[in-house]
Amino acid sequence: MDTKTVFIAEDEPLARDLLRDAIYAHPALRLVGEAGDGASALEQIERIRPDVVFLDIQMPEMTGLEVLRRLSCTPAIVFTTAYDQYAVTAFELNAVDYLLKPFTRARFDAAVARLLESPTPPRAIVDAALEQAAQRAPKPLERILVRDRGRIFPLSLNEIEYLKADSKYTAIAARGQTFLVRIGISELEVQLDPARFIRVHRSALVNLDFVDSMRADDQSQLVIQMRDGVVLTASREASKVLREMAI
Question: Any idea which residues bear 4-aspartylphosphate here (predicted)?
């Protein structure tokens, strides 16, 4: 049996552990690398060029779809996601399969069985599917329903200053307060206007309209001063993006 080299691109530690254990236990697979964010995944996949990538759709710094779009190589893809609405997108992109988290070992083995039987699609087919998926991307949100002292009210995105991951919640800073919503920051990110809301690191998004200033630190990463006094340090990838946005 031919052994396939495998790379894991997954930001959730538990899901990454499950994938790692399952790959180690399968005689036809050999793990060659891991990444917990999109930027690191892109760099390592380009360098290692594995046969297979288990690719999370929602990751910090760069989504799985963005990673796939930027790759010069064409590994077989098995998407991993916590949201079943991405299943159609996964198959339209000619992914071998997708794993809905949390997945069982039996479901993993079924995906590997398909993987071993399926040829990798030509790059042109993947690029065409990516273009179609981009054209059907959902429109940005205009407001979010939040709770405050027993009340539920709509919060306009124009009022949101920044968002921070908080365990199973996302903390939204607005109106001089912090509101917790029961939705992950990665799920919110794909519904926000990317021209205004920037993922500055793994657990924070900022609304550029509420940024007071930015300066580079000793590591050439941008230190972001928000208008309310909060200071955030952008990752290297986000710092690069912000510099490119400057006129």
Answer: 56
Instruction: Give the pLDDT confidence of 150-180 residue by residue, as tens digits.
Output: 888 888 889 999 999 876 688 999 999 999 8
Residue range(s) of every CATH 3.40.50.2300 domain in the chain = 4-135
**Residue ranges matching CATH 2.40.50.1020 in the chain:** 143-245
pTM score > 0.70 for this model?
Answer: no
Q: Read off the pLDDT of residues 62-98 as tens digits, 9 standing for 90 and up.
A: 788 888 888 888 888 888 877 655 554 555 555 778 7
Please provide the CATH number assigned to the domain covering 4-135. 3.40.50.2300
CATH architecture of structural domain 143-245: Beta Barrel (2.40)
Whole-number Å distance between alpha carbons of 33 and 123: 22
Query: In which element (H, E) is residue 131 found?
Result: helix 123-135
- φ/ψ (deg, to 5) at 157: -65, -20
